[in-house]
Amino acid sequence: MLDLIRQPWPWYVSGALIGLTVPLLLLLGNKHFGISSSLRHICAACIPGKVPFFQYNWKREAWNLFFVGGIVVGAALASQFLNDPEPVQVAEKTAQALADLGVAVDGKLMPASIFSFDNLFTLKGLVFFVIGGFLVGFGTRYAGGCTSGHSILGLSTLQWPSLVATCCFMAGGFIMVQLIYPWLLKVV
Amino acid sequence: MKLITDEFAESKTDADECAAGNDQVAPESAVGSNIKYLLAGMLFGVIALKSEIISWYRIQEMFRLHSFHMYGVIGTAVVTGVIAVWLIKRFNIKTIQGEEVVIHQKKFNWGQVIGGLIFGLGWAITGACPGPLFAQIGSGVLVVTVTLLSAIAGTYVYGVFQRKLPH
């Protein structure tokens, strides 16, 4: 049993469990699944300044901060106790495409050749950590939600603006990987 | 189940016009009431790790159309969510506090297009949407803390310029 749990979970199990987060949060106390909001609450709690966008009662939304705190703990526990000893599998074509771009598939969840502290003060670090993170934080708030708030909760409640947002998330991703990556990885 | 339509207001000072609201009427304590969301988050963290949706490689596969995994995960999640929300509505299931479940009707604005594209670009770079950012840190890739701080900075900059941006 434990061996089965240690293996990467198939998409239909993972998907169903992620989908169940929607009714879980609704029934636990009328909370709406959405993770990017936590970034706003952190701003409101720590650096509200005089910005109207951050002047609200963030304490009422504290549940969201507990939830993301839980994600950190849960992922830490899973990587400690439910870790799969086998290297992470990557689709052959993707592995080939990445090799051509100079990114080696190393059997981990994140390529160590990019995501390590050694790259922090390099051009690579600027792109993958600073700029990438900025686009995620800026874009999700501008869009009013992320994959959880729009793609999971929004689509679960059949809202067409969330479908528009989801299509734009995907379009942005395709543009980055298909058009910008070949050029970007030559530069960094 | 109750549907509420929110107007988009640029200087909205209440909770978000869209994502992650709190509609509970019953009073909540600062810590005690929130422990259950910590546990829910832990479950989500385990799922995020074991489903490998936090993997930068999986995001690459998705945007190269080389694997069905991410599409399968998101598709199943949506179908499960649709059925669950339908059941809540059909049988008028109440929250554990006995309150009616509230769903907010999202209104279209151009931010969903422009911001959506911007987020998509970032998603493909970092290999993470906001949830997986937290999970990546938990899984031990500590340098992602820098990415998270930058994401918070991005949210802050959006907040500062919100009124000047087209919506």
What does the model show?
The complex is a heterodimer of chains A (188) and B (167). By secondary structure, chain A is an all-alpha fold. In chain A, 65% of the residues lie in helices and 0% in strands. Chain A is globular, with a radius of gyration of 19 Å. The N and C termini of chain A lie far apart (44 Å). The mean pLDDT of chain A is 95. In chain B, 54% of the residues lie in helices and 5% in strands. In chain B, strands 1-2 form a two-stranded parallel sheet. In chain B, helix 1 crosses helix 5. At the A-B interface, helix 2, helix 3, helix 4, helix 5 and helix 6 of A face helix 1, helix 2, helix 3, strand 2 and helix 4 of B.
Count helical runs of chain B.
6
Distance between the termini of chain B: 29 Å
- State the major sheet of chain B: 2 strands, parallel
Largest sheet of chain A: none
Percent helix range of chain B: 40-55%
Supply Rg of chain A: 19 Å
Helix count of chain A equals 8
Order of helices and strands of chain B: EHHHEHHH
Unreliably modeled segments of chain A = none
**Oligomeric status of the shown chains?**
heterodimer
Spans of at least 5 consecutive residues with low confidence of chain B: 9-19
Beta content of chain A? under 5%
Question: In short, what is this structure?
Answer:
Chain A is mainly alpha-helical and 188 residues long. Chain A has helices at 2-6, 11-29, 37-46, 62-81, 92-100, 123-143, 147-156, 160-187.
